[in-house]
Each structure stands twice: as C-alpha cells, then as structure tokens.
User: What shape does this take?
Amino acid sequence: MTRRLILMRHGAAEAQGPWQDDAARSLTDRGHADAAAMGRWLAGLARPDVALVSSARRTRQTWEEVSAAWEVAPPCEPLDALYLAEPGTMLRLLQDRSEADVMIVAHFPGIGSLAALLATGGPEQDRFAAYPTAGIAILTFPGGPWQDVQPGSGRVEHFAAPRDL
Assistant: This one.
C-alpha cells in the first residue's frame, strides 16, 4: 500500500506586534484566501486520513480554510510539538502514525526542510528551500509503516503554491 504525506506551510500571517505572542498571530486576508484556494486544489488530488496541525493560531486557521474544501473534513490533531518544529521532530511524529495518508500543517523553515529531507529529488525539490506561504507538497512512499520512512525515500507527486493556481 502506498502512503501519502501532505506537507503544508501556513498561510500569510500578520506581522508580530511588539507585545504579541508569536503563536497568537492570525492569518491576513490574503492568508485566508490563499489557504482556501489551496484547500480546493488539494481536495481535487488527495484527502488525508488525519491532519497534524501546529497549535499556533495561524496554522489552525490555515487548516480551517483548507478543510472546508471537503464535504467531511478529515480529523485534526493540534500539536504543541509542531510549533516551529525542526524536521526531525516532525519525522518522529509522523513515524508514530498508523494512518495511510497524513497531512502536516506547520511552519517555515521546518516544513520545507522536512520536504527536502524526505524527497528523492526531482524538478520541484529546489522550491522547498523557499517554501512559500500556503505551499503544499504531496509525497508518496512505498508500502510499509511510517516507521520505515527514511530521508530520500519519498517521491514528489505534486508541489504548488497559491501563485501556481
């Protein structure tokens, strides 16, 4: 059975105010619109069995916009561990999962670094370094549990950002 990993960076967020907690930052109007557009794009390609979402406000808002594209939204698990997580942390969280198709909504640069780490290469891999806001990569992996996923074992099926739509 093929496994699919969907990696998304949150939409454009407001600038951090001088006394504002970074995790409390909201999406801008553009961020909401971009996330909704990417959700419609994604719904035409894949539906995750579960979404692992950073507990930050902007990532939760991104998921709300994306998940509205499906008639029945996949379950969502907000995780503090995904807030500004490094690729290794995200990989460990993924390796604990049993679902076939998993989506992670998190932050830059971690999400782009994870995509680059897992991808076998291809023409899209160089875009991971800049991973634009609301960007989504869909990677596929050969059968077997997520515990078997290693660097360079995923194939980039799709990569898009709002400007590509």
Notes: The domain at 7-13+22-164 is CATH 3.40.50.1240 (Rossmann fold). Residues 80 and 165 are 31 Å apart (CA to CA). The chain has four helices and six strands.
